[in-house]
Each structure stands twice: as C-alpha cells, then as structure tokens.
Design brief:
The protein has 229 residues and is α/β, with parallel strands linked by helices. The protein has 7 helices and 10 strands. The chain has a 6-stranded mixed sheet. Strands 2-1-4-5 form a 4-stranded antiparallel sheet, covered by helices on one side. Helix 3 packs across helix 4 and helix 5 packs parallel to helix 6. Bound molecules: adenosine-5'-diphosphate and magnesium ion. Adenosine-5'-diphosphate binds next to strand 2 and helix 1.
Length: 229
C-alpha cells in the first residue's frame, strides 16, 4: 500500500527564553493512501502541533516528514505552500471562514485563487453536496455552527485533496450536529477517495477510523487498528 504520509523520528521543540519545551518526542508512524486515521490524546499532548507539521505549516526540530511522496525538508516555504494548495485540505474546530465573504465566496475564492475558471459553478455544486444550496449569500455570522462547518467542508474538498487534516472538527458543535457533520465528512471522503486524518477527543468518532494513534505528553502511547473497522 502506498504511504501518503510518513513521519520518521519527528521531534519538535519550542524555546521560550532559556527554557526549551519538547512538544513532540521522537514520533514515527505512517498512513496508507485512502485510509482514515484518528489522533487522540489529552489537551496539550501535541495533536495540533503534529497536524501542523504534517501539513508543512511549521518546521520540525528533528526527523523527517514525507507528504505525498515529498520529503518536506527538501521544500522551501513556497514549495510547501504549493504542495498544500494542490493536495491538502483542512478543517478546524473554529471553522475559520472569512467573515467578510458569503458562504459561496468562502468556497469559490480559494478556487479562483487556484486559477479555476469554473470556480463559481464548482463552489455551487459543493455547497449543494453539503446541503447549503439555499444559503449561498449568507455570511458566516448568519449561519449556525453546524452550517459554518459544512461550508468549511465544502471549501476543504474544493481542491479534491489527496489528504485532509481535521483538527477537532466537532469540538464546537453539539452532539447531534457533530454527528451530521461527521457523516458528511466520511461520505465526501469516500466519494473523493481522500485520506482522512482526524484529531478528536471523541472516542466514538475515533473508533470510526481505521487506525487510532494515541499521544500523551508528546509521545506515542498506542498505534492501533480500530476494532470497528
Ligand atoms: P493539543 O492540540 O494536543 O492540545 P498542542 O499541539 O496545541 O496540543 O500543544 C502541545 C504543547 O505545545 C502545549 O504545551 C502548548 O502549550 C505547546 N505549544 C504549542 N504551540 C506552541 C508555540 N508556538 N510556542 C510554544 N509552545 C507551544
Ligand atoms: Mg489542539
């Protein structure tokens, strides 16, 4: 099976003043293309830091990350941005929609920036897929949390990513709304053949994934194949 992400002996340290904090300590794991992969662990265990590093948003202190066949250490900032643009999608706990853009624009503008001549049409189709065909002209403040996360899903899938990173995607949603968003996420994932990496506190959600990685204090304490899969 092709590895879409390979993390080898990754260490990340932050320094503040004279103190150095090891946030991730010699982490190694890999993810098969098309797999669904959960990362769980207590608050502060390094989950968000790990996602950011895997997506090339930040540099490792030691070790190597290979994303979609590219060792990230061989790419400069522009190269990493290009790789993200082409192959990576993101979903965040707090949605991160642009407040001055409508739902449609939040999806279409990134497509336009990528030079998609059909940005508007593609964005309309994506919003229809997430059940928001009638909310195109609404601004984020006019949408519920669940609706905002569905716009974020449409945006995340707009470049047909090979791999999608979701950082606590249901963390700000009530249980029922969260379940609907997750169903949509897994449906879109299946339809598009995306690899899914989900950080979550929700053990039921974690168990829906094929593999579960447990972090504690910046170390891997378990890397299991889910019993549910
Ligand atoms: P999680 O997502 O599991 O809650 P994080 O990855 O956000 O954990 O944070 C892990 C640890 O790294 C925390 O102790 C946090 O304070 C620290 N940390 C995260 N980002 C930075 C940063 N930019 N500078 C210094 N410390 C950081
Ligand atoms: Mg976090």
């Amino acid at each position: 099976m092709t590895k879409i992400l390979n993390v080898s002996k990754l260490t990340k340290r932050y320094s503040s003043g004279t103190k150095e904090l090891t946030v991730l300590d010699t982490i190694s794991f890999s993810i098969d293309a098309g797999d669904t992969f959960a990362i769980v662990g207590p608050s502060g265990s390094g989950k968000t830091t790990l996602l950011g590093l895997c997506a090339g948003l930040d540099r490792v202190s030691e070790g190597e990350i290979t994303l979609c066949g590219k060792p990230l250490s061989t790419l400069d900032e522009d190269g990493r941005a290009q790789l993200r643009n082409d192959k990576v999608g993101f979903i965040f706990q707090d949605f991160q929609l642009l407040p001055t853009l409508t739902a449609l624009e939040n999806v279409s503008v990134p497509l336009e920036l990528r030079g998609d001549a059909n940005a508007n049409q593609v964005a309309r189709e994506l919003l229809e897929k997430v059940g928001l065909a009638k909310r195109h002209d609404h601004y984020p403040t006019q949408l519920s949390g669940g609706e905002q996360q569905r716009v974020a899903l449409a945006r995340a899938f707009s470049n047909a990513p090979e791999i999608l990173f979701a950082d606590e995607p249901t963390g700000n949603l009530d249980e029922e709304t969260g379940e609907k968003v997750i169903k949509l996420l897994f449906d879109l994932n299946k339809e598009m053949g995306t690899t899914l990496v989900i950080v979550t506190h929700d053990l039921d959600l974690a168990a829906m994934n094929h593999k579960v990685l447990r972090l504690k204090g910046g170390k891997i304490v378990a890397n299991e194949t889910s019993v549910a899969s």
